[in-house]
Specification:
The relative contact order is 0.12. The strands form 9 sheets. A 5-stranded mixed beta sheet has the order 7-15-14-13-8, with helices on both faces. With 703 residues, the protein is of the alpha+beta class. It is globular and about 90 Å long. Helix content is 27%, strand content 25%. It is built from 16 helices and 28 strands. It folds into 3 domains: 146 residues, 2-Layer Sandwich (Aldehyde Oxidoreductase, domain 4); 311 residues, Aldehyde oxidase/xanthine dehydrogenase, molybdopterin binding domain (Aldehyde Oxidoreductase, domain 4), CATH 3.30.365; 138 residues, Aldehyde oxidase/xanthine dehydrogenase, molybdopterin binding domain (Aldehyde Oxidoreductase, domain 4, 2-Layer Sandwich). The longest helix is centred in the last third of the chain and has 28 residues.
Length: 703
């Protein structure tokens, strides 16, 4: 690599290559296998090989064009099948030297990133079920890479202060995790890294992985100057961490009445060149287990494999793995119903998991509203009323866990404003986490919401928090807010009793007033007195205990139903009506909750009909948003939502989740509606006009 011409350009401060960095300079959320700058080989088209720090972005870009790199060709592995051949080149021959947070499991092939096999029942019983079944149905599906579509791209600013502390302003949604990753990558203690993620510009899973913060650190260290960078959308689409493409093979044994007897699934994810974007232990996308998660199946074997290839690295995206699995599983269920001549809703009702039962993954469900949701969808879609020619109806059912974790919040009385400040390290990525804190704290304290002031702080000042994601935020941050509010309320009641000479047991804070029998005082009066003393600080914390395998867990049920119109001459598909039935707990923020439902449908509509991050010979070809089609408001059909309310939920006041139970069922519902309309089964996403026409042509072939 030749950098001399770039260094001579006026305004350039430094140029770094992989040779200038420590040999261990790799990053990742669980496995640190992605080089900050490549030194000996590049593994995909978007790999970074050099970094320029200059006075302006224009100068830096001009300098980058002056860098000359000589590449020697290596064999390219562009599909998981190629990578898993016995004689395939090993893409990461030095994998044993990579840092891993935990203990990395042993794998049967060196080009595997991770593998997970889950079984329910026994091998013998499963084999018997398949051999003696009335019918066995077997199908294969495929799904593409998709970009998260967040409003703003990845960006960061890094500087090193006079005491050697590294300050990172980042769009990362999990700042404490980024602090841990950066400390290991750059070789500093965690307390010497401060991450601030005040504004992240949207997420949908893509902002859990940071890509250039590490490079900016080494540039800042080399120049003694603050360094910032921002990816373009071409960078995002070609070199970030999209949803994994996948091939899904499913096989199910049924009896004559359509009851599921046994099920096998095998999902192979194209993990791309690096596993750095995956935070889950084992480096698999666990949502891939969900092919028949909504159903009772006594004998199952579910296999997930993530494979290294020379493609763009896969990461997490809203409901990771479930979009792929649900498209396959719910399409498969409709195909079973068609093969048996059973109504598609009736087949589902015969098999859906009920309260207290275990589903196909072996997860025991505390409360299942699946049957209720299916009945509501039947009613809303007017399922038994005929539709016009070229129209069809389809639906898809799912059940999804409510995420857990632990966090803490600091509550402090602010006497001069008559307010309670809540300090949190939870980023506000746009879903309303801080509003949840405010509303729950207000209800727990029995004071007006405007008295609750939520303040985000960086990793040096805020209590540790896991960050946004995993359908855990309302549950975890809400319970911590309720715990802190109750603690602060008790503290204020005791201080009010002391200040006014009231019996401690008699004091109650209710509707912004402290009441003790016949006496009372306003919140302002009490705060004015107790505010002269020591600061009033209370910690609110929460950490849900993992439930045992046989203990019921908390889940959301959801059913999407759609009606489509299909033009058989062109294959064009238009969704003309849609309904989502979702089981919800106590809704903390109704406006944001409804926004998540409607936004989730739009997200699923894109996955179903248009989104495809196309890779050709290892190169992403959809490098602009003009080529990569995201749905807009003009694409949205009429959408109705039906809320099945309950008070059974793990969050505050019985809240459940909503963020990731809203999008996975849309694509299979559309595929099922297309098949109902014209008898054409599309088994590959997105469901384009070309694929519908191909399916129609396939139907006409002699069998």
């Amino acid at each position: 690599m030749r950098t001399e011409a770039a260094l001579r350009l006026p305004g350039v401060h430094t140029v770094l290559t992989g040779a200038d960095l420590p040999a261990h300079a790799r990053f990742g959320r669980r496995l640190q296998d992605w080089p900050v700058l490549c030194s000996d080989r590049v593994r995909f088209v978007g790999d970074r090989v050099a970094a320029v720090a200059a006075e302006s972005s224009e100068i830096a870009e001009a300098a980058a064009r002056l860098i000359e790199v000589d590449y020697g060709a290596l064999p390219a592995l562009l599909s998981p099948d190629d990578a898993l051949r016995a004689d395939a080149p090993i893409l990461h021959p030095d994998a044993d030297s990579y840092a891993y947070f935990g203990t990395r499991p042993q794998l049967p092939h060196p080009n595997m990133q991770g593998q997970l096999v889950v079984t329910v029942g026994s091998h013998a019983a499963r084999a018997e079920a398949f051999s003696s079944a009335h019918r066995v149905f077997e199908h294969t599906f495929s799904t593409p890479r998709q970009h998260q579509g967040h409003v703003e791209p990845h960006a960061c600013l890094v500087w090193i202060d006079s005491e050697g502390v590294v300050h990172v302003v980042s769009t990362n949604k999990t700042p404490f995790s980024l602090r841990q990753q950066m400390a290991r990558t750059i070789g500093l203690p965690e307390e010497q890294v401060i991450v601030d993620s005040q504004y992240i510009g949207g997420d949908f899973g893509g902002k859990g992985t940071s890509l250039d913060e590490y490079t900016c650190y080494f540039l800042a260290r080399a120049t003694g100057r603050p360094v910032k960078t921002a990816m373009t959308y071409a960078d995002e689409l070609s070199a970030a961490n999209p949803r994994h493409s996948a091939v899904i093979h499913v096989r199910t044994a049924v009896d004559a009445d359509g009851h599921f007897l046994a099920h096998e699934s095998r999902l192979v994810f194209d993990g791309g060149a690096y596993a750095a974007g995956k935070p889950i232990d084992g480096l698999v996308v666990r949502g891939g287990l969900s092919t028949l998660a909504a159903y009772r199946v006594p004998e199952t074997r579910l296999e997930l494999t993530t494979v290294y290839t020379n493609n763009v690295p896969g990461g997490h995206m809203r409901a990771p793995g479930e979009v792929q699995a649900l498209f396959a599983g719910e399409s498969h269920v409709d195909m079973i119903a068609s093969g048996l001549g059973i109504d598609r809703i009736e087949l589902r009702l015969r098999n859906v998991v009920a309260d207290g039962e275990a589903n196909s993954i072996g997860e025991r469900i505390r409360e299942s509203r699946l049957a209720d949701a299916l009945d509501a969808a039947r009613r809303e879609l007017r399922w038994d009323v005929p539709v016009p020619d070229g129209h069809g109806r389809g639906l898809a059912a799912e059940i999804r866990h409510v995420g857990g974790g632990k966090t803490a919040l600091q509550f402090q009385l602010v006497p001069e404003r008559g307010a309670i400040e809540v300090l949190t390290g939870m980023v506000e990525q746009g879903a309303g986490a801080h509003t949840v804190i405010r509303r729950v704290a207000s209800a727990g304290l029995s004071i007006a919401p405007w008295r609750i002031e939520v303040r985000y702080a960086d990793t040096a000042s805020a209590p540790v928090d896991p960050g946004a994601g995993g359908s855990r935020v309302t549950h975890v941050i809400g319970q911590a807010a309720l715990n802190g509010a109750q603690g602060m309320k008790n503290a204020l009641q005791e201080l009010a009793a002391e200040a006014f000479g009231w019996p401690v047991d008699a004091v109650r804070l209710e509707a912004d007033r402290f009441v003790a029998g016949a006496e009372s005082a306003s919140f302002e009066e009490v705060v004015a007195r107790i505010g002269r003393g020591a600061p009033v600080v209370v910690m609110g914390s929460y950490g849900d205990a993992p439930h045992g395998h046989d203990e019921p867990g908390d889940f959301n049920a959801s059913v999407y139903g759609v009606e489509v119109e299909v033009d058989q001459a062109t294959g064009a598909v238009r969704v003309v009506d849609a309904v989502q039935v979702v089981d919800v707990g106590t809704i903390i923020n109704p406006l944001a909750h409804q926004g998540q439902l409607e936004g989730g449908f739009a997200f699923g509509l894109g996955a179903g009909l248009m989104e495809d991050l196309v890779v050709s010979d290892g190169q992403v070809t959809t490098m602009t948003l003009g080529d990569y089609k995201l749905p807009t408001v003009m694409d949205m059909p009429p959408l109705r939502t039906v809320l099945l309310e309950t008070v059974i939920g793990p969050g505050p006041f019985g809240a459940k989740a909503v963020g990731e139970v809203t999008n996975s069922g849309v694509a299979p519902a559309i595929a099922n509606a297309v098949a109902d309309a014209v008898g054409a089964r599309v088994t590959e996403l997105p469901i384009t006009a070309e694929r519908v026409l191909a399916a129609l042509a396939d139907n006409k072939k002699p069998r």
